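Design request, tokens follow.
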């Protein structure tokens, strides 16, 4: 009787180990630092438009130096620079990694571009 239990255990151990599913690692789009899949051509145009708006914001103070000057206030200039030049790039990555269709991504990116355009620097 013991022999049958041992034989049964030896036969069932490989079955249980094979039947366990390998679960893919869930990726979080909000903490990602890179785009997971290539951006389609239509989406690249929207990204280019956002980059143009960012360059125009950088050139607003008269110098294209990666710092957006704001009324000779260094602290506010730093906050504005990080928001427009750095955080917008991160938002683009988040939007591209969201599990939605390309049309929603384009709409989100267009809304982001329009929001940056509406910022007044006076």
């Amino acid at each position: 009787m013991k022999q049958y239990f041992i034989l049964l255990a030896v036969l069932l151990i490989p079955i249980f180990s094979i039947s366990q599913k390998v679960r893919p690692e869930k990726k979080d789009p909000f903490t990602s630092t890179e785009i997971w899949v290539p951006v389609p051509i239509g989406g690249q145009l929207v990204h280019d438009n956002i980059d143009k708006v960012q360059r125009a914001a950088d050139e607003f103070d008269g110098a294209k130096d990666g710092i957006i000057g704001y009324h000779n206030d260094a602290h506010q200039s730093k906050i504005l620079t990080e928001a427009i030049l750095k955080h917008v790039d991160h938002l683009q990555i988040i939007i591209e990694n969201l599990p939605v269709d390309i049309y929603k991504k384009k709409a989100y990116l267009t809304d982001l571009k329009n929001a940056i355009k509406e910022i007044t620097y006076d």
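Comment from the thread starter after seeing the answer: thanks! The helical segments are 2-19, 41-58, 74-97, 102-117.
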